[in-house]
Amino acid sequence: MANKRVFVAFAIEDETTKILFTGQAKNKYVPYDFVDMSVKQPWDEKWKTNCRTKIKGCDAFIALISKNTKKANGELWEIDCAKDEKIAMMGIYIGGATSSDKPANMNSISCKEWTWDNVLGFI
Predict the structure, then answer these.
(1) Which of 53, 88, 102, 118 is the most exposed place for a label (fewest CB within 10 A)?
(2) Which of the pair, 33 or 105, is modelled with greater confidence?
(3) β-bridge mates for residue 99, sequence order
(4) CATH superfamily, region 6-122
């Protein structure tokens, strides 16, 4: 059986934590692969089109929620895109973030603490 593909959205300021988070999938016993569309330059319509295609090709979507998320335009757009595409979604709190750091477009989405059980249980 093929691994599940999980899109990971994050604020660029949280890239180091994202690397640690996605490192979990390097274990050969983990039944999922992570996908991200890290933006190294200003994003445009082509990036949005490519990103939507990647999101649509995933089984699930995880938004890393930090104190930077509310002002991370790319991540906020990815969240809206995943909602539009009806991809299963959850948030994972990182860097000491709490529910007060959750962006408005995640209000109806479950967000949990970053633990192996929480991630695996979602996927």
Answers:
(1) 53
(2) 105
(3) none
(4) TPP-binding domain (3.40.50.1220)
